[in-house]
Write a structure and sequence with these properties.
750 residues; alpha+beta; Herpes Virus-1; Immunoglobulin-like; six-stranded mixed sheet; four-stranded antiparallel sheet; metal-binding; repeat; 6-blade_b-propeller_TolB-like; zinc
Length: 750
């Protein structure tokens, strides 16, 4: 059993925070703070309209029991400590009997009644039948044995019986009478055994609070205090700088100097007020954790089994509540940015151009970066992204480069740093440009005022790739016309898997062929027919992260699924116009969440399925207006899960958002740059560039992410780099373009 430690409690620590007197019948609120029962009943701490008590220390609400405040748990730690101090002090002054009104000196204490007794009351206590068996100890004995000061806890149903057991199914303390009457037949254990099992929960929650909650709040308070100190120091430094400049000027600038100093003082006060407010809030939060920690630690350390079990649920509830609070501290809500900027050009005009006070409201934790340049890049091709600055309220922060300096470091895998250029757009954003010179993972650090932005350092994956504006000769050719393995008759679509293997739908040969990244034939599967695993002109193809291969079976009006080894594993779809049915399905693409988009060509729509064939949604219908389609051929998915469709007979590319709502379109019939003639295949690279197989223009066109024309390559013919009706397009792992050169019966890689 735990004992009361002399050094733990002093008369000051036993004072009620409300009345500032020694505690009398202390009651515990849900926040684990204690107050006198009468103080809680009389003090104006009742929350308006809540029927709850508002803790004067932490402002947490505690519902008032219907029976009244006296039902709230008593703080046995305080009552035991008060008893102990009374006994300890009995040598210095007279301790009066609490059992009679004679104010006689107490000589003993009844442990069961928790009363101090004079000698007459001791005799009476031992004569009365109800109390004659009570354990009475002298004050000298109590001073030597602190364990005996714990007040006994009696059963609420059988008031003469002390708690002796713990009922497992009822989750409550019981006495001997309870085991025979109210809890007869129930499983119960001894108090020590029950405490050992339940103390584990308390220890776990307490440990989490101590290790995970208190340190970050404590550190946050420290950081805010440090920033406030830095702010004051910086303000003083700026004042000194201003004064040093002012001393060199003539008397006419004194008034201007005072004006600037006043501005500095105002800024300091504004910022310090913000920091002081934040510090107060954080200290309040910290107090919640530390006070609860202290309470629980004291209970565990000084309480006996009964007392701990009595308070365990209250403690667990409070610890759960505190541990569930999400700590949203990011950084001090203000900074020490107060700079003096000297605009003086000549001594003659120094009075008006002595300088100005500049500050920064930029809150680094809310600043963000967007754009492909923070995710991916290509060797030799300029990458860029936008940094958007915000103040602590989330509003755009429009500042100059002096008050909001952005430091950018782009580190290549080899360890060296790339040059970069930062342009302030004047609208609260900055554009950053850099050009990778090697491939691999680059680390991109974005720092404002010495603090890393959220997400920094970013990992940028740079691939060799190609510059679409400088596409050279063919890197590799695969296949020729024929029916043997490795030969094609009208290859339609191409795709790569995670290992870089290339899959080709061999349209007329009714099969799928697989090649390694260097073009070596690995396998083919499928044959002409309508049975499982057979095709009537396979068209679109997609491979998911698990290697499952989906193939659109054109004239069988279905989609078939195959294992990575090419074994048939499933199918869905039949011919028809209803949702879930298909009419000459063409291109396929996987969404970011693993669902399958199908270009339902002759139904003039796009359908979305999950990989087991369950229909999710349909969008698009026959026409040439926004959101309408005419023979959609292939589909591709953007980084934000939007869908791009080659709208073949409308000679355009149509973009739908992830919910199937029309977003935009670009293109138009023709042979000029950016125009299309029956576009077929489509894919998107890591930077968002859109590659399109321009079928009847016998070329491949590349568009920027916003749909603006960027580059084109290829012309009609059967030579290297020439095409006859290019269809499907895809990308290798290193960014090269794969083209299904349909009527040349080959695949070309650039």
């Amino acid at each position: 059993m735990a004992t009361v430690k002399d050094e733990k409690y002093s008369p000051q620590s036993l004072e009620c925070p409300i009345c500032e007197n020694i505690f009398s019948d202390p009651k515990i609120l849900q926040c684990l703070h204690s107050f006198c029962r009468k103080c809680l009943e009389s003090y104006d701490v009742i929350g308006a309209g809540t029927n709850s008590i508002v803790c004067p220390l932490c402002r947490k609400l505690t519902p008032i029991p219907s029976e009244g405040v006296h039902i709230l748990p008593s703080n046995f730690l305080l009552t035991n400590a008060l008893d102990h101090l009374s006994v300890k002090s009995s040598k210095e002054y007279t301790l009066h009997c609490t059992n009679c009104e004679d104010e006689a000196a107490a000589t003993s204490r009844c442990l069961e009644c928790a009363e101090f007794l004079c000698s007459n009351c001791v005799l009476a206590h031992r004569r009365i039948r109800v109390t004659k068996d009570h354990r009475i100890l002298s004050l000298d004995t109590l001073q030597a044995d602190k364990q005996t000061l714990h007040r006994p806890s009696f059963c609420e149903q059988h008031t003469d019986e002390m708690f002796m057991f713990y009922c497992v199914p009822c989750d409550c303390l019981i006495c001997r009478e309870c085991t025979i009457l109210d809890h007869r037949g129930h499983k119960y254990t001894g108090l020590k055994e029950a405490l050992e099992e339940r103390k584990i929960l308390i220890d776990e929650r307490l440990k989490f609070c101590i290790e995970e909650k208190i340190p970050p709040v404590h550190d946050a308070v420290h950081e805010v205090k440090t920033m406030a100190a830095k702010l004051r120091a910086r303000a003083e430094a700026v004042k000194s700088e201003i004064c040093g400049t002012a001393e060199e000027c003539v008397k006419r600038i004194v008034s201007r100097k005072q004006e600037i100093l006043a501005r500095v003082d105002a800024l300091e006060q504004e910022k310090e007020a913000v920091l002081r407010h934040q510090q107060n809030q954080l200290e309040t939060e910290l107090f919640k954790y530390t006070s609860s920690r202290d309470f629980v630690e004291n209970v565990v350390l000084h309480g006996n089994e009964v007392e701990i079990i009595q308070l365990r649920q209250l403690m667990l509830d409070r610890l759960d509540e505190l541990n569930d609070i999400k700590l949203d501290y990011k950084e001090p809500e203000e900074n020490d940015v107060i700079d003096y900027i000297l605009d003086s050009e000549t001594v003659e005009n120094v009075a008006t151009t002595m300088g100005r006070v500049a500050s920064s409201v930029t809150f680094t934790a809310l600043c963000s970066a967007r754009g492909l340049g923070i995710k991916s890049g290509k060797v030799g091709v300029e990458s860029s992204f936008i940094v958007e600055t915000k103040d602590r309220f989330g509003n755009t922060s429009v500042e100059g480069s002096h008050t909001c300096p952005l430091q950018v470091k782009v580190q290549a895998p080899e360890g060296f740093f790339l040059g970069n250029k930062v342009t302030n757009n004047g609208d609260g954003s900055m554009r950053v440009r850099y050009t990778p010179v090697t491939h691999g993972k680059h680390n991109l650090h974005l720092v404002i005022r010495g603090r890393e932005m959220e997400g920094s350092p970013f990992c940028v994956n740079v691939v060799e790739g190609i510059d679409y504006a400088k596409v050279g000769p063919t890197f590799m050719k695969i296949g020729s016309q024929g029916t043997k393995s490795g030969e094609f008759k009208q290859p339609c679509s191409v795709i790569t898997d995670q290992e870089g293997n290339i899959y080709v739908t061999d349209f007329v040969n009714c099969r799928v062929q697989k090649f390694d990244p260097l073009g070596k034939h690995l396998q083919d599967f499928g044959s002409r027919g309508s049975k499982d695993g057979q095709f009537q002109n396979p068209c679109g193809i997609a491979v998911d992260g698990n290697g499952i291969i989906a193939v659109s079976d054109w004239d069988n009006h279905r989609v078939q699924l195959f294992s990575p080894e090419g074994k048939f594993i499933g199918k869905f779809g039949t011919k028809g116009p209803e949702d879930g049915k298909l009419n000459h399905p063409a291109g396929l693409a996987l969404t970011k969440d693993g669902n399958l988009l199908v270009a339902d060509k002759d139904n003039h729509r796009i359908q979305l399925f999950n990989m087991d064939g369950t229909h999710i949604m349909t969008f698009g219908s026959l026409g040439n207006e926004d959101g309408e389609l005419n023979s959609p051929n292939h589909v591709a998915v953007t980084e934000d899960n939007s869908c791009l469709v080659t709208d073949t007979e409308n000679n355009r590319i149509v973009k739908f958002d992830s919910s199937g709502k029309f977003h935009s379109s670009f293109g138009g019939k023709g042979s000029s740059d950016g125009q299309l003639d029956r576009p077929a295949g489509i894919t998107i690279d890591s930077e968002g560039f859109i590659i399109v197989g321009d079928f009847q223009n016998h070329r491949v066109q590349i568009f920027q992410p916003d749909g603006k024309f960027y580059a084109t390559f290829g012309s009609e013919g059967d030579g290297e780099g020439e095409f006859k009706f290019p269809s499907g397009v895809a990308l290798t792992k290193d960014g090269r373009v794969i083209v299904a050169d349909r009527h040349n019966h080959r695949v070309q890689v650039f």
